[in-house]
Amino acid sequence: MTGAAPDDLDCSxxxxxxxxxxxxxxxxxxxxxxxxxMETCPSCLATYGIEEKLKYLLERKCGxxxxxxxxxxxxxxxxxxxxxxxxxxxxxxA
Length: 94
Hints:
The protein is an all-alpha fold. Helix content is 71%, strand content 0%.
């Protein structure tokens, strides 16, 4: 879904920011825009739910230990690459 209003976000932007939202690493304005988008986009809302469950599972299984910063950065980059690639394939841009 690509919105027409200036405040709407493209689905790929929303999915890329899901982990930031889950980790409380985004500002209030971004949080509000992403949540507003998910209220009208079932696909993004479903993806958010899957990521939320994954985060909970990781927290539970890893005992609350924190990954080294370098690992976090590499994982974040790889997740974003995967989301962008998947989105392009789904849209037929690949």
